[in-house]
Amino acid sequence: MTIAVTGLRKSFGDQVVLDGIDLSVPAGTVFSLLGANGAGKTTTVKILSTLLGADAGDARVAGHDLAREPDAVRAAIGVTGQFSAVDKLLTGAENLRLMADLHHLGKSAGRRRVAELLDQFDLAEAAGKPVSSYSGGMTRRLDLAMTLVGSPEVIFLDEPTTGLDPRGRRDMWQIVRDLVAGGVTIFLTTQYLDEADELADRIAVLDHGRVVAEGTAEELKRRIPGGHVRLRFAGEQDRDAALGILGEASRDNDALVLRVPSDGSLGALKTLIDRLDDRSVAVDELSLHTPDLDDVFLALTGRPTDEKVTR
Amino acid sequence: MTTPALTVHPLRDSATMLRRNLKRMQRYPSMTATLILMPVVFLLLFVYVLGGTLGAGLGGGRAEYANYVAPAIILMTVMSTVQGTAISIAMDMTEGIIARFRTMHIARVSVLTGHVLGSILQAMFAVAIVTGVALLVGFRPHADLLGWLATAGFLVAVALAFVWLCVALGLAAKTVETASNTPMPLVLLPFLGSGFVPTDSMPAGLRWFAEYQPFTPIIETLRGLLMAEPVGNKPWIALAWCAAIALGGYLWSKRLYNR
Fold this sequence. Notes:
The complex is a heterodimer.
Chain A: E1 3-12, E2 15-25, E3 30-34, H1 41-48, E4 56-61, E5 64-65, H2 70-76, E6 77-80, H3 92-102, H4 107-120, H5 136-148, E7 154-158, H6 166-181, E8 185-190, H7 193-199, E9 202-207, E10 210-215, H8 217-222, E11 228-233, H9 236-245, E12 250-251, E13 257-261, H10 266-278, E14 283-289, H11 293-301, H12 305-308
Parallel strand pairs in A: 3-8, 3-9, 6-7, 7-8
Antiparallel strand pairs in A: 1-2, 1-4, 4-5, 9-10, 11-13, 11-14, 12-13
Helix pairs in contact in A: 3-4, 3-5
Chain B: H1 10-27, H2 29-57, H3 62-93, H4 96-102, H5 110-136, H6 145-172, H7 176-181, H8 184-188, H9 204-212, H10 215-227, H11 234-258
Helix pairs in contact in B: 1-5, 2-3, 2-5, 3-5, 3-6, 3-10, 5-6, 6-10, 6-11, 10-11
InterPro entries (chain B): ABC2_TM (IPR013525), ABC2_TM_bact-type (IPR047817), ABC_2_transport (IPR000412), Nod_factor_ABC_transporter (IPR051784)
Subcellular location (chain B): Cell membrane; Membrane
Transmembrane segments (chain B): 28-48, 68-91, 112-139, 145-171, 183-199, 236-253
């Protein structure tokens, strides 16, 4: 495990922010911590990136104990936080150069790495301009480029797309996919359900400092009631026949459509199809509806997503 | 997996941070200009407005007073610059890049030493300009080359001490406004010493304070070095103060930064 956390706790005064969380992230995967504002996502990232001490619990990052070997952890990680960690008075190239110097890359290797990243992040044209003149998306790209100068094994991304326009978000997603393809382990926090769905190999849902669910996006969706099979029939006769066979089916708004509750597994589908087939009921169209992460979030935290989580 | 060697490079990292701070000063020249302007205004005020009368009090005139007050103004320049350090440290701490530095495997203190070295260079630059203006308005030092070198070295020691104190004040301040106010006594203390008038003209209580506060031996040393007059044990007292302030400021800063 590249990141292994057990029983992590943190309080600020009376307020419990992390109430004993366990996480494990295998190397070379994207792990997403999903939660609303105030769920404890940023606190988790701050602790795992050595910015903040935990009150209790064990954590290892890149094979090093967080409390005992913080320097070894720092040497292995890169962090891009929610608030841009760039020097606004310097130019983009100077910011990257600063990172290259702090990683002791040496003059020519440093210059090569800077040029490479400027190119990769589409910042070559703006390289000589002060960062204060950059757009939000450019600043975010520079921020991430700075994190990559030292080629970290593990990257923490705290809400990397918050405040970006749709194009900026898609660019960021592509960058994350490229990084993972290069073997990097990514720990990503987000309040966007579609982002976790899109990028993460595994997702942990954080609510009030506790992990309320963990698994792949598919696993999470399957745990939630609300999945169903939608059957469309050619005529009322077939529909009524099906309704007779499948007692648990219900009518849809569309007169020729039935909804059959299902967990969406292959076995359940096969049984359903076999039962209809046995009686020679003709089905025009079959579609599978798994709940999306919005449903998951609602079911797990007892709150509708639009109240606490932005789409 | 073998653990990579985790050596830190405090000197190299400090040099990198110094480059960062020098670039920031270049991009934000109005800050340096403000820091230089204040002592220049005081110099002109004291020499041209008050200098005639105060010089008469010293048994001479404006020319004598210019020689008397210039060392105090030079010291004020250093204090004005280090006050700026408190502000820029406080501003820097509000920036996200400091959080980035904290998550990187670098010599932690380099973030602060970069500021300290940058401020000392900035102070020396400001001192050079203010000294130039002082020469233009009638300051006539008697120091030889050795005296000037000793003055420069002494000023670096003074700047080093007070810049560490101001780094701590900047780190301790909750807002940038606080950081610009707390070092204010450093600019005012030379007035409560032998900076602008000899202490023997002051009432007893104030005179006692003036004689024992750190700025008096510092100013006396500067004046002695620049005017090539005997300084007695003043430099040693001044350097002892500087060492104590530098050490206290450094330890305090380090604790505040690592909290």
